[in-house]
Amino acid sequence: MKLKIEHLQKRFDTKDVLKDVTFTFEPGKIYGLLGRNGAGKTTLFNCLNQDIPVDGGRFYLEDEMGEHDLRLEDIGYVLSTPQVPEFLTAREFLKFFIEINKESLQKEKEIDEYFDIVNLEKEDRDRLLKDFSHGMKNKMQMLINIIASPKVLLLDEPLTSLDVVVAEEMKNILRDLKHDRILILSTHIMELAFDLCDEIVLLSQGELRAVSSTLDEEELKADILRILQEEDHS
Ligand SMILES: Nc1ncnc2c1ncn2[C@@H]1O[C@H](COP(=O)(O)OP(=O)(O)OP(=O)(O)O)[C@@H](O)[C@H]1O
After folding, report:
1. Atom of ligand 1 nearest to the CA of 156
2. Range of the domain at 208
3. Ligand 1, atom 10: nearest CA belongs to which residue?
4. CATH of the domain at 35
5. 144 CA to centre of ligand 1 in angstroms
6. DSSP character for 89?
7. How many domains are there within the chain?
8. pLDDT one-digit tens code per residue, 65-120
9. ipTM exceeds 0.95, yes or no
10. Residue 156 burial (C-beta neighbours within 10 Å; 0-12, 13-18, 19+)
11. How remote is the CA of residue 190 from the centroid of ligand 1, in Å?
C-alpha cells in the first residue's frame, strides 16, 4: 500500500499555498514534514484529511488491487491542539469511542488495557477531560488513533507539548506503529525529525521534496536550512 499525491494544489483567495505537491509515501517509515511557518503543512494535512476541498490534483491509496480513494476510516489526524469532549471522563470517552467503532476494531480489549498502551495514570482514568493537561489530552488523542488503526496517520506537531518522559513513550509508540502504516509527522524541531523520522520531506514554495538520506546529520541540517532560506529570495 502506498499513499500517492499527484499535482495537489490549494489556494486561499489569491495565495497559492500548495502549488504542485507530488509525492509517494510508503508504510514502514516515519516521514518528518518540515517547512517554514506558513509553508502549508497544516493545509496539506487538512486536504488529505478531506477537511477542505483541493483546487487541483489528486491523492489516493494504491495497493496490489489498484487505486482506492481514501475513506474517512483510512486516515487518522492527531492535531497539535488536541480536541477531546471535555465533559466526559477519559474512561467514558474511550468506552464511547470503542462502542461506536465496534465493527471496525480488530480485537477488543479491557478499557484499562487500552489506557496502559499510553501509560495514562490510573488515578486520571476517571477524571473529566476538561481537567487534563495539554499533554494528557494529547495522549488521549493518540490513543484513539492507535485503537482506530488507520492506514495513514497524520501528526501535526504532536510531541511539542509533552514532557520528556511522555515524549519518549510517544516516540516508541510511533516507532511500533510505523510497521504497517504510513506516518507523516510535521515538526519545527529538526533534532526530533532526525531522531524519530526515517525520511525528511520539505514543504517549500508549495512543493514537497525529499532530502537526501545519504548525508550525515550536520550536512543534512545545512541542506535543509539552505533550501528553506531560499524561500526568502524567491
Ligand atoms: N482557512 C484559511 N483561509 C485563508 N488562509 C489560510 C487558511 N488556512 C491557512 N491559510 C494560509 O495558508 C498558509 C499556510 O498555512 P498553514 O497553517 O498550512 O502553514 P503551516 O506550514 O502549517 O504553518 P506553521 O508551521 O506556522 O503552523 C498561510 O499563509 C495561512 O495564512
Report:
1. 22
2. 2-84+152-233
3. 12
4. 3.40.50.300
5. 26
6. B
7. 1
8. 999 999 988 999 988 888 899 999 999 999 999 988 887 776 778 889 989 988 89
9. yes
10. buried
11. 20
